[in-house]
Amino acid sequence: MNIAPFVFKTVERRRHATKRPLLLALIVALTCVPTMLFAQRVRMPAEWEPHERVWLTWFGEGRRDSVSSSMVKALQPHVKLTMNVASESMKAKARSFLAADQIDVNGIDFVIDPNIDYFVRDYVFFVKDDADKLHIVDFVYTVYGQFLPLAKPPMPEFEKKFGQWEERLAETLRLPLVTSELAFEGGGIDTNGNGTFLIIKEMALQRNPTKTLAQIEGELQRTLGARKIIWLAQGLIEDRKLPQDAPFVKNYFGGGANMHVDELARFVNDSTVILPYIPLAEKDKSPVDSLNYPMLEANAKILRNSRTADGKRLTIVRVPMPEIEQLKFTLPVDDTNLRTYSRHGFQKGDTIFRVPAASYVNFFVSNKVVLIPKYWKVGMPDSQKQKDEAVRQQFARLFPDRQVMSMYTAGINRGGGGIHCATRELPGPRR
Predict the structure, then answer these.
(1) Is this model's pTM higher than 0.85 or not?
(2) How confident is the model at residue 279 (pLDDT cuts 50, 70, 90)?
(3) Domain CATH for 310
């Protein structure tokens, strides 16, 4: 849907003379002045624009930390890094881990804050005004749609602190804070930097059940400078959170962020979108692929019929989905998890499959470098290795002026996200 250009009001109150004629004259003058004279446009920058800094959060657990180390090693030559850590002891452990990986820890800024999530992407949005000044947009935090307004039980107090990171960051960076009644996470919105946005419709409505699409569009126009929103459908089945954490099919359970677009479709330039595909001949190899196939093709149709805010047709680049049956992990139902799975009819001794949030679309673009996932490891079929290499070559063609670096990300995919989720860039000045 097209949205009219947004104006962000910055009118300052001024004291007026107490003489009534002068006050009346001023009121008349103000009513005759177009609103645009008291406004400035804002826009959410594209990810491929210059970065001043990138934030990550240290988790303190081996499999995630190894991925974090790979990201730091790839990014450090090109951008300043801040590593959030929960405590002084975690800072010492993080420095030791990174140093052992031949990383210059003295070139990393460590910030101690126990209330910053590992998937740092989802907690803060940056926009720029016409003067290239940054603002932070503060959306409502719902823990990925789990604690909606009037939810019972209410959100725990410790969770609320995670959702207040943007407020603390605005104070630290001395940036204006724009508040909104909408609920969104960073991984749920993608933009080309020129007013066109990709958002999954069902996600937007699930997070904001009291709002209509028109109301959501108007507020994103106000806060992020949206001029055109392309509403995509559903998202990957393994990235959806079902009531009571139910399986999405048979004994398959998801583990994602509940319909985030950064697992489904992303801009790679002003008018090119990357979208996964599953070959028709392979869609029945896995119940996951059988469910995702029609959704992906439906979104391909949506994109083919869409235009940017400037009227450009979209170029759609299709990349394969990783071989999900190779990436799922198996859990036996036992005394440690029986309470969780018995509510869905499973008994002790049954087998559960957990499907990680795994997609080549969850990449991160920074200064001179693009970080992409790879999934093959020893024991997997060569077809997965071939997909990893084919995707790397596709990204090299899409970003010829940047170094494309592949890294094994299963350690964080199991936690519900990927490279893009675990990074958050601070937009740099216009060049």
Answers:
(1) yes
(2) very high
(3) 3.75.10.10
